[in-house]
Write a structure and sequence with these properties.
- The protein is of the alpha+beta class.
- Helix content is about 45%, strand content about 10%.
- The protein contains 16 helices and 14 strands.
- It has a 5-stranded mixed sheet with strand order 3-4-12-9-5, covered by helices on one side.
- The structure holds protoporphyrin IX containing FE.
Length: about 400
C-alpha cells in the first residue's frame, strides 16, 4: 500500500500543454497547436522530446496504422530479423496497450470474448444491483458527502472486481496504486513503485487461479487458454484490466455528474432516461478523460501532416484535442448532446480501441439515471473554482467532489 503521507506532491510541477486543462476547458495552447501546427515536436518536462498530434484526422491516422506507429517501444532491425528497443516505454507482459501485431492480436483474441456485447449485457442485472447497493449505502451515510468516495469510485471498483474475480476487500489497496500511477505531480520513482505494487498483487493471485479458476475473466483465461498464457502475462492482463477499467470510469462518473449538476436540463433528461445514450456519448467526447493513451513510436522514417518524422521518434496523440476539433463537429468546446456524435476518439481508435467500451457505457447508462432518481436534490457544495480538478494526470478528473442533497 502506498503511504499517502510519504508521497511527495510537486505543486510547482510544469504541466505540458496537452495535459493542462482549465476546469472543463482544454488549454489555449492546444487549440493554437491544432490550428497552426497539428503535429509539433515539443520537449516534455521530463526532458524527452515527443511529437504532439492534435488534429482529429492525424490522430486517427496514427492510431489506425500500427505498422507505421507502434506501441511496444521496439523498432524493426534494418535486417528485419530482430526488434531493437526504441525510445518508448518497453512493452509490459500482458499489457495489451503496449503490444504490436501479431502479438497484440493473439492476446486480444483471448480476452475479447469476456467483453463481447452479449457477455456485457448478461452482466446488466448485476451492475444494476451493485449501483443500487452503493446508492443505499450513500443514502445511509447521509448528506454531505464526497461524491468520488461515496459513488464514483465504488461503482467501477465493484464492477471490475466482480468481472475479474478479485476480492473487493482489496480494492482500497489497488485503488490507491492506480491513482498514484497516473498522477504526473508525483515523481517517477513513486509512480513506478505504485505500478510494481499493483502488479505484485496480481502476481500473488495467479497461482491460486491456476489451481482453482473461478468465473471471472482471469479464471476464464486459465480455463480456455491456460497453456497459451504464462503466469507473468496473466498477471499483466489482470493488472491492465484493473487499471483500464477503473480510473477512467471513476473520472467519467465524477466529471459527468458535475456536468449534469451544472446543466439541469440534461440532468432532468437523464433522470427520465430520455436521450441517455446521446448525453453519455457527448460526455465521453467533451470530457475525453484519457489524455493521450500510450505513446506511439515511428517504426520507419515517415511523413505526417507534412512533417518528417524519423524512425524511433515518439508521438503523443491528444484525444481531447482531436475530440474538440471543429472538423469532427462545430463548436467542439461546447457540451451539446444534440450533436449526436458517435465517431469521437474517447475510447481510442484502431486495433487498441478500448476493449471495455461496452462495459463502461453500460455502467454509465445505469449509474447516472439511478443516481439522479435517488437524489433529485443532489447539488454541488462548493463553487466550481473550488473543485479540485487534477493538475497533471494521464487521466483527467477530480480529486474529490463535495455534494449534498
Ligand atoms: C469510460 C471509461 C473508459 C475510457 C474513456 C477508456 C479509454 C480507453 C482508450 C482511449 C484506450 C486506447 C488507448 C491507446 O490506444 O493508447 C483504451 C484501451 C483499453 N481499455 Fe479502456 N477506457 C474505459 C473503460 C475501460 C474498461 C471498463 C475496461 C475494462 C474493464 C477497459 C480496458 C481497456 C483495455 C484492456 C484497453 C487496451 C486495448 C488494446 O490495447 O487492445 N477500459 N481505453
Amino acid at each position: 500500500m502506498v503511504d499517502k503521507e510519504s508521497v511527495p506532491v510537486e505543486e510547482d510541477i510544469e504541466v505540458p500543454p496537452h495535459i493542462r486543462r482549465n476546469a472543463f476547458g482544454l488549454s489555449s495552447e492546444l487549440a493554437t497547436l491544432r490550428a497552426e501546427q497539428p503535429v509539433k515536436r515539443l520537449m516534455l518536462p521530463t526532458g524527452a522530446l515527443a511529437w504532439i498530434v492534435t488534429r482529429y484526422e492525424y490522430v486517427r491516422e496514427v492510431l489506425s496504422d500500427p505498422e507505421r506507429f507502434g506501441s511496444d517501444g521496439t523498432l524493426p532491425d534494418p535486417s528485419g530479423r530482430v526488434d531493437v528497443m526504441a525510445t518508448g516505454a518497453p512493452a509490459r507482459h500482458g499489457d495489451l496497450t503496449t503490444y504490436d501485431p501479431p502479438e497484440h492480436g493473439r492476446l486480444r483474441r483471448m480476452i475479447a470474448p469476456a467483453f463481447s456485447t452479449r457477455r456485457v449485457e448478461s452482466l446488466r442485472p448485476q451492475v444494476e444491483e451493485t449501483v443500487e447497493r452503493i446508492l443505499k449505502t450513500m443514502e445511509h451515510a447521509g448528506s454531505p458527502a464526497d461524491f468520488v468516495k461515496a459513488f464514483a469510485l465504488p461503482v467501477p471498483a465493484m464492477v471490475t472486481c466482480e468481472l475479474l474475480g478479485v476480492s473487493y476487500e482489496d480494492r482500497a489497496e489497488f485503488n490507491e496504486h492506480n491513482v498514484v500511477r497516473f498522477d504526473g505531480t508525483r515523481d517517477r520513482a513513486t509512480r513506478m513503485a505504485a505500478a510494481r505494487a499493483s502488479l505484485a498483487y496480481m502476481t500473488r493471485l495467479v497461482p491460486r487461479l491456476r489451481v482453482d479458476p473461478d468465473e471471472g475473466v482471469l479464471g476464464m483465461l486459465v480455463r480456455e487458454h491456460g497453456s497459451e498464457i504464462d503466469d507473468r502475462e496473466l498477471a499483466g492482463v489482470g493488472d491492465l484490466l484493473l487499471l483500464g477499467g477503473f480510473e477512467t470510469t471513476v473520472n467519467m462518473l465524477s466529471l459527468g455528474t458535475l456536468l449534469l449538476l451544472l446543466n439541469p436540463e440534461h440532468a432532468a433528461a437523464m433522470r427520465a432516461d430520455e436521450g441517455t445514450g446521446d448525453i453519455i456519448e457527448e460526455m465521453l467526447r467533451y470530457l475525453s478523460v484519457v489524455q493521450t493513451g500510450v505513446p506511439r513510436v515511428a517504426r520507419t522514417d515517415t511523413v505526417l501532416a507534412g512533417q518528417s518524422i524519423r524512425r524511433g521518434e515518439r508521438l503523443l496523440c491528444s484525444l481531447p484535442s482531436a475530440n474538440h476539433d471543429e472538423a469532427l463537429s462545430p463548436n467542439g468546446d461546447r457540451f451539446d448532446p444534440a450533436r449526436g456524435i458517435r465517431t469521437h476518439l474517447a475510447f481510442g481508435y484502431g486495433i487498441h480501441y478500448c476493449i471495455g467500451a461496452p462495459l463502461a457505457r453500460m455502467e454509465m447508462q445505469i449509474a447516472f439515471p439511478a443516481l439522479l432518481r435517488r437524489f433529485p436534490g443532489l447539488r454541488l457544495d462548493v463553487p466550481l473554482e473550488k473543485v479540485p480538478f487534477r493538475r497533471s494526470s494521464a487521466i483527467y478528473g477530480v480529486g474529490s467532489l463535495p455534494v449534498s442533497w
